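Sample pair:
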Amino acid sequence: MHRVVITGMGAVTPLGHTAAATWAAMREGRVAIAPIESLPRAELRYGIAAEVRDFDPLAHFDGKKLIQLDRFTQFALVAAREAIAQSGIDFGADGLGANTAVIVGTGVGGEQTHDEASRRLYADNNPRLHPLSIVRLMANAPASQVCIEHGLHGPAFATSSACASANHALAQAFALVRSGAASAAVVGGSEACLTMGTVRAWEAMRVMADDTCRPFCKQRRGMVLGEGTAMFVLETLDNAQRRGATILAEFAGAGMSADAGDIVFPSEAGAAMAISRALTDAKLGADSVDYVNAHGTGTPGNDPTETKAIRRVFGAHANALAVSSTKSMHGHALGAAGAIELVATIGALRDGIAPPTMGFIDADPECDLDYVPNAARDMPIRAALSNSFAFGGLNAVVALRRFA
């Protein structure tokens, strides 16, 4: 069993078009939630979202390539380039590319393409759909396109488990590299879900906020949709050290579980099981964890349930944890959420800064942890968890350790 480290990360998010810009915005508490610009607000009930603004696909792809790519794949390819460049890895050296895995999580896949096709077919009565509709909208498109662009021939697939998709992708990539089944991995999550059909469907569930996302506080009114991507390079510690690579963090472990209960309402026991399994897998004592990047959606049901799950696992040490939800800044990017939040978790470990939970007003008696309200905090962080708990009761938690 190999020790696994992260040597590269890239991101395209509402907070910035690189991982560095995204982390800087998180540290500063910048909020990207605003009135939506890509859809007619008059046709929406709430009309707010966290959008990736000013992203020009033609700055990254020529026309021949772009015609193959839905927005969620565009995001993933740009972020993967950044992650690979930062890692300095050469997939051609020693045949490394022959066994590098590529795994990308997504909740809804190529929804922009799907929405466009539906509009043409049903609204315009136009039976002529784009001939590349299928290759644009399929959930595995980002994984396949990353393989093609970088000449990677190892295990490659998509994970789709709603809001836990990215963390499930990360857990699978970690397992492959740790076991030696893959030499390295390019992994993350990507989502471009801000279409009329998707936003209206979420509004119909009555879980959306009409002001902003305020996780864990008494005045929280629900979640806010976001979009974006983050991608990472995972490799063995031995290979990273042999290359002289800069190690961002050690990927210490992962834990997964299924609630096997309600299709939408979260389970304290199921969430706690995934957290406990992550700690066990990482060989981390509860008292060695200093920071938790929470799932923290801002909904009435999720936040108290996650709080109770953390208390169940950490006991008295829960009072010493810094816990924050960066969804308060970048919104809920569904299948990409865990990946974007891993940028925050890596930044917290490297810089010794717990990012804030923005928009926090008054404490909720049911949410009684330290949520780092409204301003980042300098603090030593030895190890950290990042939680993702999805509709369907599917839970995935990843554990990172600071690499000294």
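Residues 4-243 form a domain with the Peroxisomal Thiolase; Chain A, domain 1 fold (CATH 3.40.47.10).
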